[in-house]
Hints:
It is a single chain. By secondary structure, the protein is mainly alpha-helical. The chain has one domain (11-80). It is built from 3 helices and no strands. It has helices spanning 11-43, 47-62, 68-80. The chain is elongated. The N and C termini lie far apart (71 Å).
Amino acid sequence: MNAVTPSNLNPSRLLAHVGFADTLARGIALVRAIGPYAAIEIILPGGTLLALLFWLYRRYQRGEPLPPVIARLGSAMRLHG
């Protein structure tokens, strides 16, 4: 029988299962978020640039801040351009 009883419940093993499930859920969410951009990048010529622009536009629509590297690059381009 596979019933969970207090006598065979190991807290460290339970935490390991919960940690694995959490990591798996995060990985699946990441793949679902990146999937369309990866398809654009693979299928279209110049797809890397298009995927990056679509990703940035989607973040802009949601009101999310730019990633720090891209924000610094943009400010540097404004200063020198």
